[in-house]
Write a structure and sequence with these properties.
mainly alpha; 2 helices
Length: 78
């Protein structure tokens, strides 16, 4: 929780978001490679990878948005 005397480093939030995006991309690639060996249907593989991508990147976007808004309002809208 931020108090009045603390300042937030926005670069730290951006750095954490980029790190999360890299990790999600690696997870997506790993699951895609693994899944291609268990299925012979490209359509099923494509649907699954799209679902994984929406889940991973959507969770990162929403988490970063919520955290950024909490920081914004904790600083009094500055």
């Amino acid at each position: 929780m931020l108090t009045g005397g603390q300042d937030w480093d926005w670069e730290k939030l951006v750095g954490k978001t980029i790190t999360a995006l890299i990790i999600a991309t690696l997870m997506l690639v790993a699951s895609g490679v693994a899944f291609i060996f268990i299925t012979d249907s490209f359509a099923q593989w494509a649907r699954t990878m799209f679902t994984f991508a929406v889940f991973f990147y959507g969770a990162i976007f929403l988490g970063s948005l919520v955290r950024g808004l909490k920081i914004y309002f904790a600083r009094g809208g500055k």
